[in-house]
Amino acid sequence: MRIRFDKLGVAITLIAAYGTLGSGFAVLKPNRIVQGQVKSILECFPAWAGAALIVLMLLTVFVALFRTPPWLKLGAAASALATLAVAIGLAADFLTPAGNSYARVSPASGFWILLFAFALLAADAITRLKPAPWMRVLFLFIAAAGIALIFLSGIWSGLSIMKEYAGRADVFWAEAGKHVMLALGSLVAATVVGLPLGVLCHRVAPLRASVLNILNLIQTIPSIALFGILIAPLAWIAATVPGAAAIGIRGIGVAPAFVALFLYSLLPIVANTVVGLAGVPREANEAARGTGMTDMQRLFQIEFPLALPVILTGIRIVLVQNIGLATIAALIGGGGFGVFVFQGIGQTAMDLVLLGAVPTVALAFAAAVLLDALIQANSRISNGAGSA
């Protein structure tokens, strides 16, 4: 019988083997700031538990290495990821000296390498399974439910990042609300402006190049520079326009961050609207004209439905982009998860940095999965309608 290796599985095997055997699993620090001591898997648990964890990681690597069924790969990856999530919490309890409230335990590079390797294995298995859109959302819901269950169980309470969270829980959720408001609010505003502008650029060819060039120019400005450029005009508006300050317009804070994110969001939405409308088959428009449809009827009943997958792709790009860029808003008082990132950098407390970075990455990932599922579902509906 011929043994068949999986090409991506070979790479995952090498990454996971290094994470298991060549890197530390956790870091024990005397306090939240100073450098700590890296501990291997065998040092983070009782001997039997450490050996069992290594065996489980190697079994998962064995499944990844060969051309096994995608469901088996997904099951192995999910089991390994769940085990890692529980194990790092148990390692914190095992390593923390009894009665020591200053010692901190953080995941080391080996943990993050293993997390990446098995997340890659899970993503590859899901891609090969080609699940329906609702199944993708179900996978995301199961993952979120699992994380919430571990979070609520208190298994992670010994980790340094959770100790940072415990002292800032109220602030964390307030900043989370600001982060979501900045990302989603700027997206909604850009969609309201960008869709009509995209239609106008599609219909008026001479206008298209000018508008897209201006929006491209905005995209070339670094985010922190754009935040700084907006401080002076918004401060002037707040000082001279009656009522502007009362509704939150100021030189620093949420207003310049919101405007900057809005400006960054316009290009993907406008460009994808133009591309989507340009891709509508001429035959569909001609048939609509033949039935006596007006321009507005053709736009909303024919062109927009056919162009919607491309437009949604632009909205997906914007949302993921804005979730990341909203982190920088903290530099000008805009709030969001960036508050913890920059506080942590200033205090050289990397677990405080993670308190802002991890939820930002998780939020961007969840948004990408949900919008990918929506785009896929819409494409299937459009293809079904086209076939009919």
Kindly describe this structure.
This protein has 388 residues and is mainly α. The protein folds into two domains: 7-130, no CATH class; 169-387, MetI-like (MetI-like fold). The protein is built from 15 helices and three strands. It has helices at residues 7-22, 41-44, 47-65, 70-95, 109-129, 133-153, 160-166, 169-203, 205-220, 223-240, 254-278, 282-290, 295-325, 338-347, 350-387; strands at residues 26-29, 37-39, 104-107. A three-stranded antiparallel sheet has the order 2-1-3.
**What is the CATH first-level class name of the largest domain?**
Mainly Alpha
Classify the secondary structure makeup into a structural class: mainly alpha
Helix-strand pattern: HEEHHHEHHHHHHHHHHH
C-alpha termini separation: 46 Å
List low-confidence stretches.
none
Fold blueprint:
Blueprint: H1 7-22, E1 26-29, E2 37-39, H2 41-44, H3 47-65, H4 70-95, E3 104-107, H5 109-129, H6 133-153, H7 160-166, H8 169-203, H9 205-220, H10 223-240, H11 254-278, H12 282-290, H13 295-325, H14 338-347, H15 350-387
Antiparallel strand pairs: 1-2, 1-3
